[in-house]
Amino acid sequence: MMTVTPSFYVILGPTASGKSALAFALAQRIRGAILSVDSMTVYRGMDIGTAKPIPHEQRVVRHHLIDLVEPDELFTVARFVELADAVIRNRYGPLIATGGTPLYYKALFEGLFDGPGADDAVRLRLAELSSDVLQARLKTIDPVASIRIHANDRKRMIRAIEVFELSGKPISSFQTEWENPQPRHPARWFGLNWDKDVLNRRINQRVKQMIATGWLEETRELVRKFGALSQTASGATGYPELIQHLQGKMSLDDAVELIKIATRQLARKQMKWFRRFPNVTWLPGDAPVESLVEQILQATPPGADRA
Predict the structure, then answer these.
(1) What is the spatial distance between Cα 56 and Cα 58, in angstroms, rounded to a whole number?
(2) What DSSP line would sit under 226-275, residue for residue?
(3) Domains of the chain
(4) Residue 307: band (very low, low, confident or very high) from pLDDT cuts 50, 70, 90
(5) How confident is the model at residue 179, as a pLDDT?
(6) pLDDT at 196
(7) What is the dihedral of CA 260, 261, 264, 268, to 10 degrees?
(8) Could you give the CA distance from residue 17 to residue 7 in angstroms, rounded to a whole number?
(9) Distance CA 122, CA 119 (A)
(10) What is the reported pTM?
């Protein structure tokens, strides 16, 4: 008897797009589980600020790769891929992957970037150079990467130069090799598309609601318990601003406005990444959830997970 692989769906969308609600509704409909593809929901105690599924939702639908580590621990993309591969390999029913970390999607479905690892000594030396010097150096060794990387993005410039110094190859050559490989997991991909102004209003309203439901108190407890967030956890949008407020460095109103701005910027970056993925069926984000579930189920027949 032929074994049929359970259906695997991917639901993309920027922050505040409603992708989690859609994934939850779809999972209920097809009796599936959800695989969280998010670098911040892995942290225990970071619930409100990461829009983590509430306990009721986690009881109704199984959510994988949530609440894995403490906020003072590092969590790498390699670790995520290892754990996600195990979930996918051992699944017994339909699975819906959703979350807001584009790099996690790329690593899970296309593979990890096969460049050299980090070298602290090289990074410390390069960090002492001005942005102008870094940019000039990058233009010399990797003109392609110098076009892609903004002159103010010191972190990426340093990484690009580091890769060249350690490997003798420009980082753009690794990235070219990394583009469009054979997908590691066949799946049916869907995305939620929003008008920019409408999405911005949704983001502003969600930030306001998160503050109202205790985000500041959550952050205060994290600081009390851990002192500081890890390097990876501190990348979560909003927490650094709230921590600065708690340290007396800015008013709460100013922190909230900065969070709104940072979240809108995050949404634009997410969509820029998501648009690069092939074979995504884009759906109107403002359609009723029930309608979106029907469109997903009707888009491809059962068993037709595509590469």
Answers:
(1) 5
(2) HSS--TTGGGSTTHHHHHHHHTTSS-HHHHHHHHHHHHHHHHHHHHHHHT
(3) 8-111+181-299 (3.40.50.300), 120-178 (1.10.20.140)
(4) very low
(5) 55
(6) 96
(7) -160
(8) 23
(9) 5
(10) 0.81
